[in-house]
Design goal:
This protein is an all-alpha fold and 169 residues long. It is 66% helix and 0% strand. It has two domains: 90 residues, no CATH class; 67 residues. It starts with 8 loop residues before the first helix and ends in a 15-residue tail after the last helix.
Length: 169
Amino acid sequence: MVEQYPQEAEPLVLEAYVLCAYAAAEFSFGSLSKLTRARLLLVKSIAINPRAMKGSAYVTLGNLYYRLPGWPISYGNDDKARQNLEAALKLFPDELDTNYFYGDFLVGQGEYPKALIYLEKADKASIRSESRLSDLKLKEELKHRLKAAQEKNDDGGDFFSSLLPTSEE
């Protein structure tokens, strides 16, 4: 598809998705080359059409920057993650994935009150007909992430408090 439609962003995003899936299944240092190729495809797709697939390139790129380790192992970078995820939000402020992944990133940064705003907005977002299966799966993950963010927010983010028994136990 990339060869057939070289001036279209969507095939680049789809190829990047496939490379990320292969890299996740492989989970080795060899998978880093697939993730690096995915990053290049996503950057290229953004240059062609940043709005393609409702900002999915920005979301995926932000997620890669967030989840991957930084130098010298890989190209992970929290500042670039934030920039890409916020760019997706500016384009599509009401979408499930833009709000979920930005909220998830904020949880990872310890910004629980702000994360809750985006996770709650994701919870209210509609399921897209063109992404029904992935959106339903994301909604399932969202329930757990939202609960964890609420608990972290309520206890001030103290890791050890989540290990203590509650009064119900």
